[in-house]
Amino acid sequence: MNSKIEKTVQFVREQLKGAEAGHDWFHVERVWKLALTIAGPEVCDREVVELAALLHDIADPKFHGGDEQIALTIARNHLQNIDADPATTESVLFIIKNMSFKNSLEASGDELHDIRVKNPAIAELQIVQDADRLDAMGAIGIARTFNFGGFKNNLLHHPEMAPRKNMTREEYKRNEGTTINHFYEKLLLLKDRMNTAKGKELAAGRHAFMEVYLEQFFAEWEGTR
Description:
By secondary structure, this protein is mostly helical. It has helices at 3-15, 25-39, 46-55, 69-81, 86-98, 109-118, 122-134, 138-151, 169-174, 179-185, 197-221.
C-alpha cells in the first residue's frame, strides 16, 4: 500500500466515524476491495481507482442537506494534503462527481456520451461506479436498504404504493417511497447499468439473489409460505 493510499484510509476511517451503517467506513472498504477486484484485468490507473473508491462517500449529500459540493471540497483538500498530483486530483474529483445513480437519471444519451469521451479517467470511473453499485446489490445491498429505510423511518412495504417509474433526479433524492419499492426503483435496475465485464459477472449473481429474496418476502407478506 503506497503512502497516499495509507493516509487516505486513515483519513476516511476518521471522517466516517459514527456514519449511518450503509454509508460508513465498512461500505467504503467493501467498495475499495470490489474496485480492486474489478480493476484486475482492466487497463487503468490503479492509484486513481483506489483514491476515488476510498473518497467516493466522504460526504454523501443525503446526510449534508443535499449539498454535493461538500464532498468535492473535502476530497480536494485531502488530495492536496497528501501531495497528489493535479491530474490525479482532477480524475478523482471527476469520478466522485459523476458516479452516483441519481446523477444518471436525467442525463441524456449525448450527455452520458460526452462524460465518457471527454475525460481521461473514464475507465477508472466505470470501475469505481461498478464497485459502488455492486455494494447496493445482493445480500449486502438488501441489508443496507433496510438499514437506510429504518434510518429514514420508511415503511417496509405498502401494497397500495406502487414503485415510481421514470423518476426525476429530484424525486429520487426525496426518497418518499417504501423500502421494498426501492428495489424496483433502483436496485433491480443496476444489473443492466454495469460497465465492466467483471462488474456484469458479479452483478448477475447478486441480482438473482435479490429476486429470490423478493419472492420469499411477498410470499411471507401474503401468508402463503
